[in-house]
Amino acid sequence: MTALLKLACGLALVVAVVAPPPRAQPPPPHQPTEEELNMTSETMGLEYKNYLEEVVKMLEQDAQFKDILANATDEDIQSGSVADKLHVVDPSIRSKLDELKRIELDRLRRKATEAFELSNGLDRNTIREPHHLDHRNPHTFREEDLRKLIHKTTKDLEELDRQRREDFKRYEMEKEFKYQEQLKTLDEEHKKEAVKKHEEELKKKKEHPKSQVHHPLSEDQLEEVWEEQDHMEREDFNPETFFRMHDVDGNELLDQNEVMALFKTELDKIYNGTDYDPRERDEEMNEMRESTYAEVDTDRDGFISLKEFLASTQHEDYRADQGWEGVNEREMFARQEYEKYEQQRHAEIQRQINMGVVSVATGSVYSVPARRRAAPPAEFYSSVLLTR
């Protein structure tokens, strides 16, 4: 990757190039798998991701534009003003950008057509205004196209992180809801057994001492990666060498995939064996990423530069490791939030019952005519949940 990738604001476009090893020839460090390297671009959910990637790859091919970007400030890139220099791009590359834009517009038109088939209220010859390109000029890729793409990507990635946090909160509330509804179906003896088992499971999740899980990018955490993942001697640890070993593409920037690969050892401490919740591990990894960037990415460009990384090693918190409070150790939702969610879920189940969507007996699709349906027992809410 080059400075151009800053306009993707964190979207991983991984180039399989390894930086020359500094100072000495250390053993190869832990290399993220292809699945790990692609996790961000595949899960970010940007609907126009392919278009973004192709535009970035195309612009990287122009040597003059790359030089301009290499000397651009972070503000030039984040504000989109670097797009004003698009006129220097070679005409042959501009022609290919024009074609990429036409292909993207064709994709949007096809989506409009598909939507029309589902809803007669949409004119199949029109496109809802896209914010990642200038649709008023359908034939050429211009400065405004690049500017819009930068701004749209920045906004969308922030929104996707917000949505991820909200989705996880709902996921945790649904687990609590199912547990509470299941208890309502049990007699007193079995309820006590279920509560005891539930409390033991929660205790097991929290049984690792907080001090054993290091704070992301603290000295202890980095030295542990150096020793266990990179197979180096701890006494030889050097921050700059560490950075260059994990800067997989050698651009003196750690992107989000390269940073998240550093958390594997800490995540394995919290989520080991086969009985952990993969959704919770994913959320833990993302929260470590967000914490790291909030503390270290001082220019907020979505990357950690060598300068930022070395500066973070001079802070007092770097050596005074405060540990890490995991997802399982925190309340993910307030009581008031849960009570509102509980009311919504009860109303949803009642609607399903009224519509005959579920069977009182099995929770499956109800095929008996409405006039023959019996009123469901009060505990049916729980039986429906257990069959979902």
From TrEMBL:
Annotated region (Disordered), positions in chain: 190-230
Domain of life assignment: Eukaryota
A GO molecular function held by the record: calcium ion binding
Keyword line: Calcium, Cytoplasm, DNA-binding, Golgi apparatus, Guanine-nucleotide releasing factor, Membrane, Phosphoprotein, Repeat, Secreted, Signal
Cytoplasm listed as a keyword: yes
Residues making up the signal peptide according to the UniProt record: 1-24
Chain intervals with Basic and acidic residues compositional bias: 190-204
InterPro entries on file: EF-hand-dom_pair, EF_Hand_1_Ca_BS, EF_hand_dom, NUCB1_N, Nucleobindin
Membrane topology reported for the UniProt record: Peripheral membrane protein
Subcellular location as annotated: Cytoplasm; Golgi apparatus; Membrane; Secreted
SUPFAM superfamilies, alphabetized: EF-hand
Main location, first listed in the record: cytoplasm
Domain (EF-hand): residue spans on this chain: 234-269, 284-319
One Gene Ontology cellular component: extracellular exosome
Similarity comment text for this entry: Belongs to the nucleobindin family.
Identification of the protein by name: Nucleobindin-1
Source lineage: Eukaryota, Metazoa, Ecdysozoa, Arthropoda, Crustacea
Chain's gene name: NUCB1
